[in-house]
Amino acid sequence: MGVVVGVAMTRHWTAVLDPVTVLPAPLIGAVVGLMAGTYPALRAARIEPVEALRR
Predict the structure, then answer these.
(1) Which one of 4, 16, 25, 28 has the minimum C-beta count within 10 Å?
(2) CA distances from 47 to 2, 15, 42, 43, 55 (A)
(3) How far apart are CA 17 and CA 25, in angstroms?
């Protein structure tokens, strides 16, 4: 969003941002990040610490 506004200001354009797409973007990014990190975390939680150090 900052890049769009910055480019629009330097080019003397009017920035047009749809709030329906801009506002939920951080929430969607957080959900994707949590989903991507869940599997490796669960897998690592099942390994004993000593066994993990041996690998």
Answers:
(1) 16
(2) 43, 51, 9, 7, 11
(3) 12
Average of per-residue pLDDT across 17-34: 90
Give the chain's domain count: 1
pLDDT value of residue 29: 94
In this structure, is residue 9 part of a structural domain?
no
Find, among 21, 27, 3, the residue nearest to 13 by Cα.
Answer: 3
The tokens describing 49, both together, are: 């610490």
Query: Is the predicted pLDDT of residue 55 greater than 80, yes or no?
Result: no
Reference 55, options 35, 39, 43, 36; nearest CA is 43
The whole-angstrom separation of Cα 11 and Cα 23 is: 24
- Residue 51: domain span: 23-55
